[in-house]
Amino acid sequence: MSTAPKDLAETPMAEKALAIHRRLCGVYGCPIPYFHDLDPVSELISSLLSHRTRNADSGRAFKALRARFNDWDSLVTAPTEEVQALIAGVTWPELKAPRIQAVLRAVQARAGSLDLAFLRDMPVAEARSWLEEIPGIGPKTGAAVLSFSDLRMPALPVDSHHHRVAQRTGLIGPKVDVGPAHAILRAQLPADWDAQKLYDNHEILMLHGQRCCFHRNPACGACAVLDLCPTGQARTESRRPDRTAALHP
């Protein structure tokens, strides 16, 4: 797992990250309730299904798996074609079905069972490393398992919306991919923040990406953090009418 400088939380960029956090918390209403309360293995499956897939579609696929299998051990041993058919509504079901089964087999081999409750007793960095050593589990999935599940550990997931807002506001560079962004963005926030505050940070940046900072045609004029966003300021400035041209046609 990549790391960021330990003193990053004491930089001007950290001050900016906190300013954005406070501003967007006011817009979206922190603390934000957790959207579900799954055990960590169920959250792992849910997160693997959600990659590049709409929440509604991945949610239906997860419910289909739960309805079909009495326990996740049965999913591991099921025919892969059956699993693929059940999750047909997600993006790349032909890849996700064997991947989910392979990841769960790796968990069984390492932990002795499909039970990840023991991660709660580890430091967050150690728990993330344990998960991310399994092929198929990246930084986002590892953080999601710790944060979104009933473990409620202080880890910071970064999805595509969160990443886009972070890049446009300059919290990360334009060439920093989602994976490396996890360590950088976490290091900008106070080390003593609890699970709820880090969850809020993820949620408000994600919601801002979904509701204002769109992939195409972001609503910069309605943005609550426009004064903290160099990308938005540049876009807004470029669209202002040329007053000189108007006076001298």
UniProtKB/TrEMBL annotation:
Signal peptide: none
Cofactors: [4Fe-4S] cluster
Family annotation (CDD domains): ENDO3c (cd00056)
Alphabetized Pfam families for the sequence: HhH-GPD
Alphabetical UniProt keywords: DNA damage, DNA repair, Glycosidase, Hydrolase, Iron, Iron-sulfur, Metal-binding
Record flagged with keyword DNA repair: yes
Domain HhH-GPD per the UniProt entry, residue ranges: 49-211
Protein's UniProt keywords contain DNA damage: yes
Annotated PANTHER family: HYPOTHETICAL BASE EXCISION DNA REPAIR PROTEIN (EUROFUNG), PTHR47203
Homology family: Belongs to the Nth/MutY family.
Name this polypeptide is given: Fe-S cluster assembly protein HesB
